[in-house]
Amino acid sequence: MTLRVYNTLSQQKELFQTVRPGKVGMYLCGPTVYKSPHVGHMVGPVIFDAIKRYLQFKGYEVTWVVNITDVDDKLIDAAERLGTTVKDLADKHTAEYFECLAALGVNSIDHFPRATGHIVEIVELCQTLINKGFAYAADGNVWFDVTKDEDYGKLSHQTAEEQEAGGEGATAGKKSGRDFALWKAAKPGEISWDSPWGKGRPGWHIECSAMAMKILGPTFDMHGGGMDLKFPHHENEVAQSESATGQPFAKYWLHNGLTKFNTKKISGSDMFGSEEAAKALAAVSAKKLVGEHGALVLRYLLLSSHYRRPIDFTETAISDTKKAMATFTRLFERIDRLVPKPATPPATPAPGSHGHGASADDMDRVSANLLDGEHAAFAKAVLGLKMKFLEMMDDDFNTAGAIAALHEMAGEVNAFLEQNEAEKTKPADVLAAAAAGVQTLRNLGGVLGLFQEPAAGVAAKAADDGLTGKLMELFIQLRANARQTKNFALADDIRKGLTAIGVTLEDGADGTRWRKD
């Protein structure tokens, strides 16, 4: 199946064809760093990290840009309120943002341009728009004249009345309430830069256009962001960029759904229904959530819905995610016990190393000898599910469907082990085939950035020098002793106590094992 993506611009799925053969330019709107990052700031990066990984898997050379808005009204107000400088405040929260990205395994961003590092390009773009008659200066400000752009509104598909209601409103010097700021005159004491119109600073929208075109060129492939950015931010980016260059700006516009909180309490933040929850989103620290639930849980949760759908972030959703992930954890542990040499740790395949044509010569160890041998049915089932995974991803990056295919694959491996009584007889051919299936599962999960080791920082647990394992061995031995002396009440209390703190004991023919849920 050929990759198709939903384009907000056309409001339909389109065949993915790049601007330059074999290369993809992606731009994702990053945060305005006036406060600590919340979980909503992580949605886009996690989704687009998975998208980049998949595009690389398909053989594309991808350049991904995420901007940092480090000058803005909100930053100026927050710095003044806290008694610090705009730069110091922006640097602090940018570092926090980077830390959360690293914890969530978002490590494929190529450029993090900052608005303050592109003032020259911003001023030049403003001047170009004035020279071409699309913008005008008034009282030290520069405004984009919406009436001069005949197809303004083509991205958000809003009427003029809707644009008026959602725009910046009437201000002295503006010709229309729909016009938006490209350059803002500085107020006394504010951070500012010299310009042909006097001291000032850039408007929000012009920053992204200048940075995107500086790095990716006047026309690039994908522009992404949350649904809330479609208007006015992205609409204004399109207008000013295309008016300046006379060329299409971004070929495909991808908008991810927003995070919804519908729980009474998550991580200490009280939420009272959807409207209150939306307002309280900023109170839910990404760092706190990662520390409490684990980075891989949050990454899995964010990818378990189609990117265009809202993400219901609830205690139930987190609990369900942990249970779903336990399916894979138990399978990996099972294979590691049965197979002397554990499967290779997951890694994203090298760009272009595997495509949809894989069949007998698969990217993993499910190869011709398995397809033609005694376990051909199992091998074909695994490869069929691999193809299902790829079909899901080719259908507008449907990570939810891809993860469902991984669960089916895990079920196939477990059923194969059960049917062949692998724990009892440990037949080498069965174990080799099962390990090959798990390697396929791991590698495909790696395409989504799943099954990785959490990064150091907020996701990593403090080193305990093996103390946890030693304590668990002690609990298991105490429980075994209690059972031998027929003190079953104590044995049950030990199990229940461990279950209450998220530790599960599993009794098997080769002893008792434990795992953290």
UniProtKB/TrEMBL annotation:
<keyword id="KW-0963">Cytoplasm</keyword>
<comment type="similarity">
    <text>Belongs to the class-I aminoacyl-tRNA synthetase family.</text>
</comment>
<dbReference type="GO" id="GO:0006423">
    <property type="term" value="P:cysteinyl-tRNA aminoacylation"/>
</dbReference>
<dbReference type="InterPro" id="IPR015803">
    <property type="entry name" value="Cys-tRNA-ligase"/>
</dbReference>
<keyword id="KW-0030">Aminoacyl-tRNA synthetase</keyword>
<dbReference type="Pfam" id="PF01406">
    <property type="entry name" value="tRNA-synt_1e"/>
</dbReference>
<feature type="binding site">
    <location>
        <position position="237"/>
    </location>
    <ligand>
        <name>Zn(2+)</name>
    </ligand>
</feature>
<dbReference type="InterPro" id="IPR015273">
    <property type="entry name" value="Cys-tRNA-synt_Ia_DALR"/>
</dbReference>
<dbReference type="GO" id="GO:0004817">
    <property type="term" value="F:cysteine-tRNA ligase activity"/>
</dbReference>
<feature type="short sequence motif" description="'HIGH' region">
    <location>
        <begin position="31"/>
        <end position="41"/>
    </location>
</feature>
<keyword id="KW-0436">Ligase</keyword>
<dbReference type="InterPro" id="IPR014729">
    <property type="entry name" value="Rossmann-like_a/b/a_fold"/>
</dbReference>
<keyword id="KW-0648">Protein biosynthesis</keyword>
<protein>
    <recommendedName>
        <fullName>Cysteine--tRNA ligase</fullName>
        <ecNumber>6.1.1.16</ecNumber>
    </recommendedName>
</protein>
<keyword id="KW-0479">Metal-binding</keyword>
<comment type="subunit">
    <text>Monomer.</text>
</comment>
<dbReference type="InterPro" id="IPR024909">
    <property type="entry name" value="Cys-tRNA/MSH_ligase"/>
</dbReference>
<feature type="domain" description="Cysteinyl-tRNA synthetase class Ia DALR">
    <location>
        <begin position="388"/>
        <end position="459"/>
    </location>
</feature>
<dbReference type="InterPro" id="IPR009080">
    <property type="entry name" value="tRNAsynth_Ia_anticodon-bd"/>
</dbReference>
<dbReference type="InterPro" id="IPR032678">
    <property type="entry name" value="tRNA-synt_1_cat_dom"/>
</dbReference>
<feature type="binding site">
    <location>
        <position position="279"/>
    </location>
    <ligand>
        <name>ATP</name>
    </ligand>
</feature>
<feature type="binding site">
    <location>
        <position position="208"/>
    </location>
    <ligand>
        <name>Zn(2+)</name>
    </ligand>
</feature>
<keyword id="KW-0067">ATP-binding</keyword>
<dbReference type="Pfam" id="PF09190">
    <property type="entry name" value="DALR_2"/>
</dbReference>
<feature type="region of interest" description="Disordered">
    <location>
        <begin position="156"/>
        <end position="175"/>
    </location>
</feature>
<keyword id="KW-0862">Zinc</keyword>
<feature type="region of interest" description="Disordered">
    <location>
        <begin position="339"/>
        <end position="361"/>
    </location>
</feature>
<dbReference type="GO" id="GO:0005829">
    <property type="term" value="C:cytosol"/>
</dbReference>
<feature type="binding site">
    <location>
        <position position="233"/>
    </location>
    <ligand>
        <name>Zn(2+)</name>
    </ligand>
</feature>
<keyword id="KW-0547">Nucleotide-binding</keyword>
<dbReference type="GO" id="GO:0008270">
    <property type="term" value="F:zinc ion binding"/>
</dbReference>
<dbReference type="GO" id="GO:0005524">
    <property type="term" value="F:ATP binding"/>
</dbReference>
<feature type="binding site">
    <location>
        <position position="29"/>
    </location>
    <ligand>
        <name>Zn(2+)</name>
    </ligand>
</feature>
